[in-house]
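> Could you send the O-antigen ligase-related domain-containing protein prediction when you get a chance?

Sure thing. Input:
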Amino acid sequence: MSEERTFLERAPEYTFALAALVAPPLAVLVPLGMAVYLPIFGGLCAILFWRGGDFGLLPIAPLILVAALCGWGAISLLWAMEIQSGALAIVRLAALSIAGSLSFALAGTIRLERFRFIVPAFTLGIFVAAVVLIIEVETGNGLSQLIFHIKAGPGQFLSSTQKSLLGRGGTVLALLIWPFIVLAWRARSHWAIGGIGIAMVALLLSDSLAGRLALAFGGAMFLLVRISPRIWLRVLKAAVVVCVLILPGVISRAPQPPETFDSMPWLPLSAHHRLLIWHFAADRIAEHRMLGWGMDASRSIPGGDETVNLIDYYPVTHGTRRVINGNLMPLHPHNAILQCWLELGLGGALILAAFLWTMVGNVEKSAARDPLSAAGIAGCIVAALVVSAVSYGAWQSWWVSTLWVVATFCRLTISEPLPSSGEPSI
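Output:
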């Protein structure tokens, strides 16, 4: 009987060790699988949490704001063009948030002295994910070719101009690395610290620009908060709110192609296309600024399916012919803030701003007690904002799942330490 009780007491630790082992390689190889991973992980956490968890550990304020966003989204269905897809997006967001909040709460029950399985498992998961990305680069997207060949059938291969299919995995790794850094440092594990180095090399070598930007900006915020937590967390808290509120106006005044071909030739072609998409989104936002076009309306926004065909003939490209050929709105704006404004108007933007303010505010409250975790979580928040600003749809199930999984691992880093445990400074 005692053995069974001991196993049940350790079940949360085993669950998180398995989750930490699986998440990084799954995110790299099958990123859309994160939409399945979170419900399974959340279901296990719900069972364990129900057996003795403290409901005070649930992220109440963020959950209230997610509920407010879902409620406003449901109201927006009254004027939405995509009622069915909008309703499904709301249901998915709510369900994934419940699963994510339960895993987040269970993470708060695990003390640092019980991480002896979690950190090695996380290290192995990060190592495998990083090695896969490095192999992808060194083989010229060889793994992508193999995956595409398996999916498409015999004789089908990626063209030489197509990007790696593992790009999503690079962006997820750029988020997971921040809680891993904190846990690795606390564990004082040479293997784990080595895993940090390998993960950074993989991100720098990968062709995921979003991943590299997330690593750079997240790293900058990590260092700034480590130096002066109080000042920089306040700056971050104010900055995220201001950014949410003014972004549509800033975008509408920013240059766009073909002007940017000349003024910003150093931008990759995909960034020029993003500027076109964002300008189109800003124009549509201005038409329905207060209420938006309705939940998940981006995919059917008027004019969004118009094809753009711009060619860069400017001499700065050294004679290289670059072509933008795509839709003005390919399903979503590739920017979570603009998507929230576009679909949910000012009301949605205010809820998003409140959510980000609350999230950073919670980190600020813990900074005095746990500055290392505060720096890691602040770096992760900035990295997530960078990726959300240039990639993916705000309501995509795999992306929402990824954000909740990353938040859960961040919650692990602020578990109460042993009274006798010191903490090295970095």
